[in-house]
């Protein structure tokens, strides 16, 4: 098999029963694998009994999205990996267009399909939408989704486009590039790890693409709900490391300086709207970043040695925060990105 669809599972027995049948039906050319992160809900036993045609990899511990996939993918031989969340409904012919895109350009490292919301199927979904971008301060956003504003899919992104990052909810990745980049950074555990991987790919000259003729529907929020303070902590902590590790040197200190100001504003906004736990989560994220700075600096130095033909396509040189909250530009098309 050229393509392996690898679903990471942790206590997701209901989602597996709901969505695995369509993955199997719509993916006849692929090997279907479920990598289980030490579930305790009977997931492994259920899969062996009800889906004997799929392969199950049992990870010894729950090492999160990053460690779970790194452990599993060391045991998978395929030209292309599809990292698929367990809460995604796939559609017919979702694999073929992306295989063809990979075949057309050996410098494509990762691809994502169009991702719509499962619970509002006319609209794009938060985690990926029509491909990920990054602004000059390291804030991620998507074609079709800026912060909490989700666009209706009216065909405005029916194209094949180079972007900056592909969503980890449904991410096709060339296996050789994944391993060349040493996989996911396991210090992230979860959240923004796919952006980090894509950024490292692009710093080595690879391209990340969006392909609209492949489409899936995503429930979302399965790992941590947005009301959970730990989600806030991981997002802010991981984003700081993301910037420090990967951004071009001439932008590093300026970006971190403005991020500290904006994160401070965000912390007080959380304090008055979401309570103390989210405020403190941002403080904790910064304290962790400062404490781990020596080890993160070592990563940056090591990655710098691997850089060649840095590819910055998909970086927006404006501030998506100012555009969204001050200028009220809530749609991607309002940002003036070609």
Helix content: 25-40%
How are helices and strands ordered from N to C? Answer: EHEHEHEEHEEEEEEEHHEHHHHEH
The total of beta strands comes to 14
Count of individual domains: 2
Dominant shape: globular
Tell me the structural class: alpha/beta
Total of DSSP H or I helical runs spanning 4+ residues = 11
Q: End-to-end span in angstroms? A: 37 Å
Q: Which second-level CATH architecture of the largest domain applies? A: Alpha-Beta Complex
CATH topology of the largest domain: Spore Coat Polysaccharide Biosynthesis Protein SpsA, Chain A
Instruction: Average the pLDDT over all residues and give the rounded result.
Output: 96
Approximate strand percentage: 15-25%
Low-confidence spans: none
- The radius of gyration is 19 Å
Question: Can you summarize the main beta sheet?
Answer: 9 strands, mixed
Please characterize this protein's 3D structure.
There is one protein chain. The protein has 338 residues and is of the alpha/beta class. The chain has two domains: 3-218, Alpha-Beta Complex (Spore Coat Polysaccharide Biosynthesis Protein SpsA, Chain A); 229-312. 40% of the residues lie in helices and 21% in strands. It is built from eleven helices and 14 strands. It has helices spanning 13-26, 43-50, 64-73, 96-104, 175-180, 193-203, 229-246, 249-273, 276-291, 293-304, 320-325, and strands at residues 3-9, 30-37, 55-59, 80-84, 88-90, 108-117, 132-135, 140-142, 145-146, 149-150, 160-163, 170-174, 207-218, 315-316. Strands 1, 2, 3, 4, 5, 6, 11, 12 and 13 form a nine-stranded mixed sheet that branches. A three-stranded mixed sheet has the order 8-7-14, with no helix packed on it. Helix 7 (229-246) packs antiparallel against helix 8 (249-273). The protein is globular. 44% of the residues are buried. The mean pLDDT is 96.
């Amino acid at each position: 098999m050229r393509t392996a669809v690898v679903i990471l599972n942790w206590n997701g027995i209901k989602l597996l029963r709901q969505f695995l049948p369509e993955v199997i039906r719509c993916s006849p050319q692929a090997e279907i694998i479920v990598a289980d992160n030490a579930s305790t809900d009977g997931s492994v036993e259920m899969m062996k009994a009800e889906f004997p045609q799929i392969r199950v990899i049992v990870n010894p511990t729950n090492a999160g999205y990053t460690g779970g996939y790194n452990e599993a993918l060391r045991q998978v031989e395929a030209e292309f990996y599809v990292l698929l969340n367990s809460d995604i409904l796939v559609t017919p012919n979702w694999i073929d267009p992306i295989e063809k895109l990979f075949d057309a350009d050996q410098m494509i490292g990762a691809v994502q399909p169009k991702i719509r919301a499962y619970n509002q199927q006319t609209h794009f979904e938060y985690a990926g939408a029509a491909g990920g971008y990054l602004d000059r301060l390291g804030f991620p956003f998507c074609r079709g989704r800026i912060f909490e504003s989700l666009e209706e899919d009216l065909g405005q992104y029916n194209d094949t486009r180079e972007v900056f990052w592909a969503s980890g909810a449904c991410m096709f990745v060339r296996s050789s590039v994944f391993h060349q980049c040493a996989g996911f950074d396991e210090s992230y555990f979860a959240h923004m790890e796919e952006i980090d991987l894509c950024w490292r790919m692009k710093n080595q000259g690879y391209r990340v693409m969006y392909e609209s003729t492949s489409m899936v529907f995503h429930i979302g929020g399965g790992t941590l709900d947005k009301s959970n303070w730990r989600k806030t902590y991981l997002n802010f902590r991981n984003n700081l490391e993301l910037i420090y590790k990967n951004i071009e040197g001439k932008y590093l200190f300026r970006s971190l300086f403005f991020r500290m100001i904006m994160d401070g504003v965000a912390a007080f906004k959380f304090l008055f709207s979401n309570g103390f736990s989210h405020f403190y989560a941002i403080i904790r994220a910064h304290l962790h970043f400062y404490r781990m700075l020596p080890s993160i600096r070592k990563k940056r130095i090591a990655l710098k040695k691997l850089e060649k033909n840095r590819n910055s396509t998909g970086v927006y040189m404006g501030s998506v925060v100012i555009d969204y909250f001050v200028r009220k530009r809530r749609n991607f098309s309002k940002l003036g990105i070609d």
